[in-house]
Amino acid sequence: MSLRMIAWITLVALALPLTAQEADCGLKVSGFGTLGLALNSSDRAEYVREPTQPRGVLRSLNPSLDSRLGLQVNQNLGGDLSFVGQIISKYRFDYTFKPDISWAFLSYKPTSSIQARAGRLGFDVFQIADTRNVGYSYLWVRPPVDFFGPLMLSSLDGGDLTWTTPLNEGLNLRLKVAAGRTASIDKVPFGNEGGYVPLGGSKLFGAVAELDWRDLNLRLSFARAQPSEKFPAPITDLQDGLNAFALLLNDPRLAQQARGVDFQENCFRYLSAGVNWQGGPFRVEAVGAQVRTGDGPIPDLKSGYLSVGYREGAFVPYFLASRIVSDPHPLYLGALPTLGPQAAALAEGVTAFIQHQRANQTTLALGLRWDFQPRTALKFQIDRIEGRPNDVMLWLNVRPGWEGKATVGSVTLDFVF
Length: 417
Known about the structure:
Layout: H1 3-15, H2 21-25, E1 27-40, E2 46-47, E3 68-78, E4 81-90, E5 100-111, E6 114-122, H3 145-148, E7 155-168, E8 171-182, E9 187-189, E10 196-198, E11 203-213, E12 216-226, H4 235-249, H5 252-260, E13 268-279, E14 282-292, E15 300-310, E16 315-327, H6 341-355, E17 359-373, E18 376-392, E19 395-396, E20 405-416
Antiparallel strand pairs: 1-3, 1-20, 2-19, 3-4, 4-5, 5-6, 6-7, 7-8, 8-11, 9-10, 11-12, 12-13, 13-14, 14-15, 15-16, 16-17, 17-18, 18-20
């Protein structure tokens, strides 16, 4: 039995006897989950919540897209020291729901304004990163895919430091820095069935500044990720081909393009700004972000979303609009398209690979959240997605005839315990 499974069983066992003994020993056990079903109007492209999922939704009800379960333990170790552990089971790169250890860290808080953490952390420089799997914590069925889909890094093996201070009455500032390497649990399906790109081990740095003033929250985030792994075959075959023709044609720019499609050669920089306001029955959230990839042919990305909800008793109808666009970099292929079938096929393969790194689409969604029981919410959502049919970074197994349009219906039951 693997260490991951042992840890999962241990947390389940801890969650069962929720008695008063928890408070006596400083142990708190909690959990969260989502049971979901989704349906796609198109049978020519599979809709996914995040690129770490190996299959998506077509014209049949699919429970894998949004369903997940998590358990968390908080243990007070005495004084200013505590331990937090969290395990999550969700549909992952290997077509299973095997649980992963998403958090396992020590927290040291000597004062109310300073906190240091070390271990495996949620990389919460990204918006709602700590609660992205806790469906009960946000209005929607799922975080907007156009914005959160490209943000595939979930956990950090390292540490962070947070400083919080009041600036004025009702005005508070929070600053955080985090550094380490991406956790080994982050993998993205790629290539042949069963293949994947490992994201673990990438150098990661992030910083966030937040201002809270009454019902208003302003947030500015920055992150930098330097991959440690290469793309697997067939991308390595494309690189070998570019390098071979670079030597044959004495064309150093082709060799430069070969380096540019190497995952290791791209340094990803993320900048985001957001605002969240809750006043009376209204809840408004707006966020924009930019991802820069470096000097190679892999395109930059710009994305954002606007969410508006209105609570009426136990019901919250909401509207969500999101958008993602690619900022293409020049792709140099030299004389390859005119040098015969082999060179032309290589040029076509490189072009197709870069095309799969692009996204350009808009999503409009209407939904309803119903808090019919304490700590339990039922949600209904309809998404209408329209985009360019050739920019398919956020879709899987695109078939001929795909027009870049789809309607996705979803229902979820979210709960915490």
